[in-house]
Design goal:
The structure holds two protein chains of two kinds.
Chain A: H1 3-14, H2 17-20, E1 24-26, H3 35-57, H4 61-64, H5 66-95, H6 104-126, H7 131-146, H8 158-187
Helix pairs in contact in A: 3-5, 5-6, 6-8
Chain B: H1 4-9, E1 15-17, H2 20-42, H3 52-58, H4 60-71, H5 99-103, H6 111-123, H7 130-139, H8 142-157, E2 160-162, E3 165-167, H9 176-189, H10 192-197, H11 208-213, H12 217-225, H13 249-254, H14 266-282, H15 293-296, H16 299-303
Antiparallel strand pairs in B: 2-3
The chains are: A mainly alpha, B mainly alpha.
Chain lengths: 203, 313
């Protein structure tokens, strides 16, 4: 068996280019609700861009440079925008029952994205090196210690938290966003509930 | 353009032209402008961390009391349990469920040695007057040490601060007052955390030990002033008026209500509850009742209002 050919055939079958980048969509996606997903991705792009600048100049920079502080503010408000749009997207998908017709994996990857984002934000707060991170680390450590994982995931270890924040979690989130989008494109946008005509086929 | 398979999927619905790439670029531009405006208008918080230097300067008596509590074992970390020490009776357990005990002591910290005695020993070459004090303290019996500590504890409750110096009534506390004065002076130089954290390696990114030093009363009182305590929804707040981690509302909510707020194993209870809640959240599509909530609250009708099928004008 040729693995390369098998992968190509699978991709062509499951996510043909015209489904991955469609220029025609059902009219029911015209609702503003569908914007929350793309706005979440746009906020993630801003988080990555501002995060790259903060990482390039190092974790001390924004404490001493007005420019650095402004970039940190952009990062801070991008986090707020990211969660704001993501939670709206999540509630919308919940009330649309977007897991219908074999789309359970879309929901699961979405929830995993939400949870990963919480870890990313949490490690971000811990990487600030200010009173906020000091307090959150010392408060939060009790829960992790009580669960027996406090030394594996040590909130007081700046190096570990910074590594999680600037590499591990962004990578996990980017991969999950990729899988989430591929699933949505592969399985199609969920049709309206109750409005679905008889005979419309879904997989 | 869409595949035949997808066309069948949307059978019965009108289709319309779309440009997802343009939509993403416009969304990025819109969010870019939005966060720039928010950043310029509201900035972001950066409160300075609490340091031993700041605390020992503003609260010298409390700093000495902290040192004394470390020496006599009453400090939070001195009696924490795993992962810092083997006082298993202080670990959080729920019947046979004891992950804190199972994990064991993985970050061993002998509080008395790490936070007070070793930093003083490191100061000996600079301040030789510490040597006889340390020798007297360490050669004394535990009972004698406890008697000195108790005597000085009483004296500190009547302490005054004059010109930055802690003045206490004369009591027979052996070398303890001298040791704690030296320790206070070391803290005031700003070097205490560095000495506590000293690992013999020039590169250091793990601040576990230094951060644990002030985690008790000093940091609690600073946090209480800013309404950041766990019982004040502190985990999801920022100091000041900035929005915090509001997405931690469920986790934070649990700390406000019994039994989580009253149980000695509150953190373990919260952890287990959040774990179960997360699992339910993940499995919503397969849980009857939970997955049917949207049918009872038909918000989807508003979302898809006006959607028409072929021949439905």
């Amino acid at each position: 068996m040729n693995w390369t050919r098998a992968l190509r055939s699978w991709l062509q079958r499951e996510i043909p280019m015209e489904d991955l980048l469609p220029d025609e969509l059902p009219e029911f996606v015209r609702s503003y609700v569908y914007l929350f997903g793309v706005l979440t991705i746009a906020s993630f792009v801003m988080l990555i861009l501002s995060g790259i600048v903060l990482a390039v100049f190092g974790p001390q920079w924004w404490h001493v440079s007005p420019t650095g502080h402004f970039v940190n503010s952009v990062h801070f408000w991008s986090v707020q925008a990211f969660f704001f749009f993501m939670v709206l997207h999540l509630w919308a998908q919940f009330f649309m029952m977007a897991w219908r017709d074999g789309r359970g994996s879309n929901w699961v990857t979405g929830v995993l994205l939400f949870l990963s984002s919480i870890v990313a934000a949490f490690t971000g707060f811990l990487s600030q090196e200010n009173l906020d991170s000091q307090w959150i680390a010392l408060q939060g450590k009790d829960a992790f210690n009580a669960l027996g994982v406090g030394s594996f995931f040590n909130l007081l270890d700046f190096g570990q938290m910074y590594g999680f924040h600037i590499f591990v979690m962004p990578l996990v989130i980017a991969l999950l966003i990729g899988v989430h989008i591929l699933l949505v494109r592969s399985k199609g946008v969920v049709p309206p509930y109750e409005e679905r005509p008889k005979g419309a086929r879904t997989r | 353009m869409m595949s035949e398979r997808t066309r069948r999927l949307y059978e019965g619905y009108r289709t319309t032209s779309a440009d997802l790439v343009k939509e993403l670029v416009i969304a990025c531009a819109a969010v870019f402008v939005l966060v720039l405006i928010l950043a310029a208008a509201f900035s972001s918080p950066d409160p300075a961390p609490l340091t031993a230097k700041a605390w020992s300067t503003s609260h010298p008596v409390e700093m000495e009391q902290e040192g004394l509590m470390i020496l006599n074992g009453q400090n939070d970390i001195a009696s924490y349990g795993p992962p810092y020490d083997n006082q298993m009776q202080n670990a959080q357990t729920l019947g046979p469920i004891a992950p804190q005990v199972w994990a064991g002591v993985t970050i061993p910290i002998d509080a008395k040695k790490v936070f007070v005695l070793d930093p003083l020993r490191a100061m000996e070459p600079i301040d030789p007057s510490i040597t006889p004090l340390l020798a007297a303290f360490e050669s004394a019996s535990p009972a004698q040490q406890a008697a000195w500590e108790k005597a000085y504890q009483g004296a500190l409750t009547r302490a005054r601060v004059v010109g930055g110096e802690v003045l206490t009534p004369n009591v027979d506390a052996g070398p303890v007052p001298g040791l704690l004065t030296a320790w206070l002076n070391l803290a005031r130089t700003g070097s205490l955390e560095a000495v506590i954290n000293e690992s013999g390696r020039i590169y250091q990114t793990d601040f576990t030990r230094a951060l644990l030093l002030l985690q008790g009363y000093p940091l609690q009182s600073v946090a209480a002033n800013q309404a950041l305590l766990g019982t004040q929804w502190g985990m999801m707040k920022e100091p000041g008026n900035w929005p915090g981690a509001v997405w931690l509302w469920f986790y934070t909510l649990l700390y406000q209500i019994p039994p989580y707020s009253t149980s000695p194993a509150g953190d373990l209870l919260v952890g287990i509850t959040v774990g179960v809640g997360t699992l339910l959240f993940l499995l919503v599509p397969w849980i009857p009742g939970l997955r049917d909530i949207p049918r009872a609250i038909p918000i989807h009708r508003a979302i898809w209002r006006g959607v028409k099928r072929h021949g439905e004008d």
